[in-house]
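Board notes (copied after class):
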Amino acid sequence: MAGILPTLASQLIVFFLVSSFCIILVSGEEEEEHGFGRALDRKLLGLKKEKLSHFRFYFHDIVGGQNPTAVQVVPAPSNASATFFGLVRMFDNPLTLGPKLSSKTVGKAQGFYASAAQEEIAFLMVMNFAFTEGKYNGSTLSILGRNNGGSSRVREMPVIGGSRLFRFARGYAQATTHSLEPKTGDATIEYNVYVFHY
């Protein structure tokens, strides 16, 4: 019996060493397999069925007067074309339910637009629609795209994401000029936004 115990003990030690080595190998493989990302079940994030929503509102770009909502941060070079190539404006524009500035405010459009074409009027648009009304209060939609205002009546830009109620959002926004004041440059744009979200 005395000779069996040391043999059994040594076999147990070898067994535990081999087992722990196998566990380390399996753990290492799992880490390599997952790396820094892994698949998740959307229910873990509280995501339910995806839905499609339509939003319609008016964007008021006010560049003139005492309280402009869009200000020039980079002027177009003096030798720029008639398209104002190079001009950049930052904006914090009201979004309203109707075309009048006095109609109910539903949020703000915050971002910038830059004249990005030399031979036509076309802008790079980078903006968030930050909503302040109802259940959408505090939620945002992000837009990044080309607004070819000079050549198209309806301009289309992609919705690339969002926050809060619009996490994982994707879709598109259509912009149509409702009114444009030639002397001041102030514009009211109708937006129709179609978004897939959870």
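Comment from the instructor: Helices lie at 4-34. The CA atoms of residues 55 and 193 lie 5 Å apart.
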